[in-house]
From TrEMBL:
Name the UniProt record assigns to this protein: Ig-like domain-containing protein
Domain Ig-like: from-to ranges: 9-116
Alphabetical keyword list: Disulfide bond, Membrane, Signal, Transmembrane
CDD domains xrefs: IgV_pIgR_like (cd05716)
One cellular-component annotation, GO: plasma membrane
Sections of the chain in a coiled coil: none
Amino acid sequence: MKAGPNCFPGCLSLSGPSRVTGIVGGSLSVECRYREEFINNSKYWCKFPCVLLWKIVETRESEREVRRGHVSIRDRPASLTFTVTLESLREEDAGTYGCGIDVPFSINPTFQVEVSVIPGEPVMSALGLLTVPGTLTLRENLERRVSWDP
């Protein structure tokens, strides 16, 4: 794994998408992969710059989902991943975030993720013009996953 512009101290211990996009009112998920040596460490999601008090959500127990407001995190040690989900997206959710691993007495590995939120596309219904929230995740490497939650 080569260090890039989104790489901060320890980031080679983490990987994931550098950019994700969601639709206002919908949700998006970010999957962060980590090395096996961090399987028992706490995982977190933070707003950049990531400092101790700016953690948005953090999990300490494997296979446990922790929710804070409209953001949740779930560690999946069997696949060496943790997933952060932002629901009921708002335009103000756009910004720079980080997947992080808490490493006591050391610099925490973090991986920077740019979150974009775009307006929902209006659709025509029998009642008039409506905006239908959904889930849209676009990754910079052209991988796409689109699903709708009517």
